[in-house]
Amino acid sequence: MTVAGDVVLQVEDLHKSFGSTEVLKGIDLSVRRGERIAILGSSGSGKSTLLRCMNVLEMPTRGRLILDGEAVGKPAAGGATRYREAELNRLRARVGMVFQQFNLFPHMTALENVMEGPLSVLGRPKAEARRTAQRHLERVGLGGKADAHPARLSGGQQQRVAIARALAMDPEVLLFDEPTSSLDPELVGEVLGVINDLSEDGRTMLLVTHELGFAYHFATRILFLHEGRILEDGPPEQVLKSPREERTRRFLDRFTAFRF
Amino acid sequence: MGYVWDFFAVARNADILLAGLGQTLLLSVCGIAVGVAIGGVLAAMRLSGRRTLSWPALAFTEFYRNTPPLVHFFWFFYGLPMAFGLTLPPFAAALAALGVQSAAFFAEVFRGGILSVETGQWEAGRALGMGRVRLMRRIILPQAARRMAAPFVERSFELVKTTTLAAALAFHETIYSAMVIVTQTYRPLEVYTVVAGLFFVVLFSASQIAEWLEARGRRAGAR
Ligand SMILES: Nc1ncnc2c1ncn2[C@@H]1O[C@H](COP(=O)(O)OP(=O)(O)O)[C@@H](O)[C@H]1O
Ligand SMILES: [Mg+2]
To answer: What is the ipTM of this complex?
Structure first.
């Protein structure tokens, strides 16, 4: 068994190109157990692509992933890695993801959404899956909405169900890709509140966000991505208040232009 | 000069006509079954993402979509014996032609339904670690099925109407039976009016049932 502070997920020399455009230009990143990493960067800098490469929703062009000390996939020509489907499924079951657009299953109730992973991926018995799903819904404040279909829920509620769905897999690493970016402003708070509560569990999380204030309080570590490279990597205090790079400063200035 | 209608001529031969209608329905149901089975395989080939599978399926689909169905009937009935010495009875030849031809259409219905499911649904399933088959069965197909329902019914109705071409193979379906009655009674106007009425009643009631089922499915989905 691994302990807090171990490297849980390691990304080595990760490159990703779409056609001839290289979007990630060599990312090296060690994620330690219990770390909460906020990823900042302007639109198009490769934040989503980085997260999506970490559970191989996007196939990296080069580089490899090491989960709990074990390399995922087999090395192939040109520094690429080949993955077998079963291996990918195992990786994804252990690295959860929450999407900007929620992506709840519309034909299932909130409870069924949360049960689906444990039931059909982890092979849990139905009664047990139902019980834990209910508990996870309560955890995100939606115990009373178990039987509601997603169409009947607000954006904020849908995203909380999506978080419960990811949690139900008890993932070692949880990835959030701008979880509040498609929400009305008044619903952002409830979702950030839920994410913040997860800190208590010591769960390892990576969060792409534009909510700098939240990132400052929530994260133990902040990355700043620029044109497919990590330009900044350090504690929130340092990255947000005394960034090393001019680029980072300019990015941060845009967020603080209207202080009042 | 007024035409004197005489539907009694048809009524006297109702048994022949109804037997024909029975054969039409039998051919339709079997045709749909064969079409769905082959269409499902074709759709899976096209969606496989492998050229060695998707291209032949595409070629097959396009070929059958862009050639007249009567030609397919003649091939299976007259062509097979000449080319391969394989003689099929009219029902089998008609079923083969109908099944293969409608498979091309059903494949498009299935493919369209599956492609209409947002990529976010695939990604959400994959992100949970679901394998291909499970993802298809649990997430994609249930959503695709609802969107396929209307075009599926539409294609099935086309198929029922296309079964009338089997008359050209002397298969005793509704039209062939009608022709038999016409040669005995010389009452084509009455006979074919009744035939149109029969098809209308069958297809219209089927469409009412389909609509009711669809509405029920929609309600269940939006609960
Ligand atoms: N599937 C894709 N095909 C082609 N280009 C893509 C694709 N996904 C992302 N990109 C491009 O990669 C770059 C980085 O995208 P992304 O990772 O989404 O950035 P961010 O999340 O930081 O806004 C953008 O220029 C985007 O247009
Ligand atoms: Mg993004």
So the answer is: 0.93
